[in-house]
């Protein structure tokens, strides 16, 4: 079974600074999808960024970018120019490309990000 | 983007009663939906996969008779917590698969059992 590990329960960043959230995963598959979701205090889950394992290029969405290291099974999220609105719990998630697993997501434990003004 | 709604957003019920939570995909069809449970400051725990027109698939350890799931149409799945007890108090979230392998989440339902 696949597992996702987020080793940082909490992180803090100064407004306008850059922060990196770590995520590692364990799988024997070669094709899969990785995601970062944000859950602000409203508790609405919001997709931040996605990465297909077959793509070598790291995904980028405005201030959010990932460092995808397939061999190391690492998928970190970098937030540049941090804003107060970035304060949230961030979840790393894995989705198998195999049909037998359906569309299930495997989540990490989450990292609480605090942004200081 | 795809929108998933949930109703109600917050419900308080008395111990021993049943409560139904609705999950709707508003602008797309979903043959599959997922139900999660989340405790404060913890991750999402998958409870079951809701399948349109067939039985739900429950994760190990989830009581099928307590958490009844019905996926009656391509846009609606319901979770009924039967004979609710205070330990069932939690935040319940539904989701539906998107076009690009992601999932879209509803806003969640806070259940409080007194």
Multimerization status: heterodimer
Total of DSSP H or I helical runs spanning 4+ residues of chain A = 0
Spell the H/E element sequence of chain B.
EEEEEEEEEEE
Fraction of residues in β-strands of chain A: over 45%
Mean of all residue-level pLDDT scores of chain A: 96
Largest sheet data of chain B:
7 strands, mixed
Largest sheet of chain A: 6 strands, mixed
Measured by DSSP, the beta-strand proportion of chain B falls in over 45%
Shape of chain A: globular
Helix content of chain B: under 10%
The largest inter-chain interface, given as chain pair and residues per side, is:
A-B, 23 and 21 residues
Give the uncertain stretches of chain B in residue-range form.
none
Structural class by secondary-structure content of chain A: mainly beta
The whole-number mean of residue pLDDT values of chain B reads 95
First and last CA, distance of chain A: 41 Å
Give the fraction of residues assigned to helices of chain A: under 10%
The number of helical elements of chain B comes to: 0
- Overall spatial form of chain B: globular
Give the structure's gist in a few sentences.
With 117 residues, chain A is mainly beta.
């Amino acid at each position: 079974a696949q597992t996702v590990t987020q080793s940082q329960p909490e992180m803090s960043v100064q407004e306008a600074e850059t922060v990196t959230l770590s995520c590692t995963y364990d799988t024997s598959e070669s094709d899969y999808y990785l995601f970062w979701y944000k859950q602000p205090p409203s508790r609405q889950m919001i997709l931040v960024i996605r990465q297909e394992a077959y793509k070598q290029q790291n995904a980028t969405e405005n201030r959010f970018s990932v460092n995808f290291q397939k061999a190391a099974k690492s998928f970190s999220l970098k937030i540049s120019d941090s804003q107060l609105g970035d304060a949230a719990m961030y979840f790393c998630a894995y989705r198998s490309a195999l049909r037998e697993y359906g569309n299930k997501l495997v989540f990490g434990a989450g990292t609480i990000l605090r942004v200081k003004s | 983007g795809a929108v998933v709604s949930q109703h109600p957003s917050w419900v308080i019920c008395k111990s021993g009663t049943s409560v139904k939570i609705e999950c709707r995909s508003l602008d797309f069809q979903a043959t599959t939906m997922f139900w999660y449970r989340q405790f404060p400051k913890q991750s999402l725990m998958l409870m079951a996969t809701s399948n349109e027109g067939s039985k739900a698939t429950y994760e190990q350890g989830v009581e099928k008779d307590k958490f009844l799931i019905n996926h009656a149409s391509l846009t609606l799945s319901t979770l009924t917590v039967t004979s609710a007890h205070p330990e069932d108090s939690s935040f319940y979230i539904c989701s539906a698969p998107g076009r690009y392998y992601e999932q879209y989440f509803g806003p969640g339902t806070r259940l409080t059992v007194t």
